[in-house]
Amino acid sequence: MKKTLLIDMDSVICDLMSVWHERYNRDYQDNLTVDRLECWNSEKYVKPECGTKIYDYLKEPGLFLGLEPLPNAIEVLERLHGKYDILIVTSSVSNAFAEKELWIEKYLPFIGKHNLVFSHRKDMIVGDLLFDDAPHNLTAFSSTGRIAVAMDYPYNKEVPVPRVKNWLEFEEFLKKGD
Fold first, then answer.
1. SS3 assignment, position 154
2. ∠ CA 116-97-32 to the nearest 5 degrees?
3. SS3 5
4. Is there a contact between 153 and 37 (Cβ–Cβ < 8 Å)?
5. pLDDT class for 96, splitting at 50, 70, 90?
6. Is residue 43 within 8 Å of 55, Cβ to Cβ?
7. Whether the Cβ atoms of residue 100 and residue 90 lie closer than 8 Å to each other
8. What is the number of H-type helices and E-type strands within the chain?
9. pLDDT tens profile 124-177
10. Of 18, 56, 114, 163, which one has the fewest beta carbons inside 10 Å?
């Protein structure tokens, strides 16, 4: 029986942070980058006049559909696809559901949108390993006794799970575990 990998989309498969921050930076003449985020709450790193409005950008039509895959993500997922069952697990604002399905159809047709799961409770999804960036997902999943692997970002440094800096490192991590 194949192991099941649960793979997050935003900032794991595709580059949400650069696009999101670029949009904010343009409107507020700032220089926010993912390297400055030392915790999950982005509103702590934006100008006061923006505050929680930073999350409004995530509701803009076309934002998710226009995201680019992170380097080597598609190629590694193609190689892993035959060896593992893969579910793409993501949480999202409701208006992005259709865009994320279209993104999967465009970049990951071999996985398909039928393997896309929307959930804020990734620890409740059946799977052997979660590859994610969100501290709360990594913590909750690993507390079930299953393996959580972090895409390494400053905002998830405090979570005591294995970390990788890119998709090639993730592939090597899986090879070592098999």
1. helix
2. 105
3. strand
4. yes
5. confident
6. yes
7. yes
8. 5, 6
9. 999 999 999 999 999 999 999 999 999 999 999 999 999 999 999 999 999 998
10. 114
Q: Which residues are catalytic?
A: 8, 10
How far apart (Å, rounded) are the C-alpha atoms in residues 96 and 111? 19
Beta-ladder partners of 149? 131
- What is the Cα–Cα distance from 166 to 154, expressed in whole angstroms? 14
DSSP string, 55-122: GGGGGSTTTTTTPPBPTTHHHHHHHHHTTSEEEEEE---GGGHHHHHHHHHHH-TTT-GGGEEE-S-G
Average pLDDT of the chain to the nearest whole number: 95
Pairwise CA distance, residues 146 & 132, whole Å: 13
Please give the structure tokens belonging to residue 163: 């970390």
pLDDT of 117 > 70? The answer is: yes
Strands 147-151 and 4-8: unpaired
The one-letter code for the residue type at 23 is R
Instruction: Please choose, from the candidates 147, 165, 106, the residue with its C-alpha nearest in 3D space to the C-alpha of residue 4.
Output: 147
**The whole model's pTM is what?**
0.95
- pLDDT recorded at residue 178: 66
Asked if residues 16 and 142 have their Cβ atoms less than 8 Å apart, the reply is no
